[in-house]
Amino acid sequence: MRRVTAPDQLPAPLPPAPAALEAVRLRHSFGAVTVLHGVSLRVESGEVVAVTGPSGSGKSTMLHLLGGLDAAQDGEVWWAGERVDTLDSQARAMRRAGRVGLIFQHHYLLDDLNVLDNVLIPCRLSGQGDAGRAADLLARVGLAGRERALPEVLSGGERQRVAVARALAPRPAVVLADEPTGSLDRANAETVAELLVSLAREDGAGVLLVTHDERLAAYADRTLHLLDGQFVE
Ligand SMILES: Nc1ncnc2c1ncn2[C@@H]1O[C@H](COP(=O)(O)OP(=O)(O)O)[C@@H](O)[C@H]1O
Ligand SMILES: [Mg+2]
């Protein structure tokens, strides 16, 4: 009689799910000055991680490498289980459009495009997300009815909420935010931070939030401290 499943033929256990974002020993210098000294981190899907550190500690440099905006001089960057630091910059940009949502201190909306078309930019580049998803996100950030407005007629807080909707529109695996509320007053900063974190969590994105702001770091599941280009306890 034939055994259907011999003990040594049992299916192997499933490998652990890939992290939303992983960095391995990232190193970066500007000229003779080394700004990152081998930084490693892992952000799981649905997890929110804050990075704090004094000005000049390397936070923005790290975020640019993690978002593939600059090429790491050494080390690895992985988005949802795919290594991307080895891609050329154009391939990385195409990958980024669908996988990584970026939010900066300043919103960087395109002035000639209306609110809806700004939110649709990463969708059009990646083929992920559509006008329905974009309009839904705009409603969630309190901007229903403003789809056709140009950015110039919006307040700073409203523009930053458009930037949040734009980052999330293609359902990215990773959201990277660099001082996303740094240009806002306190009330607007709280609103934007809450929206960013709750919407990203609902979508199961992994979020890395660079901030000076203790109140913003309080939204995270854990906080990493960067000092002189290294994580410290
Ligand atoms: N493009 C650049 N060219 C030269 N030096 C840079 C550049 N970008 C950042 N630096 C330097 O790298 C260090 C870290 O900067 P940054 O990553 O912006 O820190 P943070 O965001 O924590 O304030 C600083 O000393 C800064 O002056
Ligand atoms: Mg910075």
From TrEMBL:
Lineage, top ranks: Bacteria, Thermotogati, Deinococcota, Deinococci, Deinococcales
GO MF annotation terms: ATP binding
Protein family according to the UniProt entry: Belongs to the ABC transporter superfamily.
Name recorded for this polypeptide: ABC transporter ATP-binding protein
InterPro entries recorded: AAA+_ATPase, ABC_transporter-like_ATP-bd, ABC_transporter-like_CS, ABC_transpr_LolD-like, MacB-like_ATP-bd, P-loop_NTPase
Residues covered by the ABC transporter domain: 21-232
Keywords of this entry: ATP-binding, Nucleotide-binding, Transport
Range of residues in the leader sequence: none
Top-level taxon of the source organism: Bacteria
Keyword Protein transport carried by entry: no
Source organism (scientific name): Deinococcus taklimakanensis
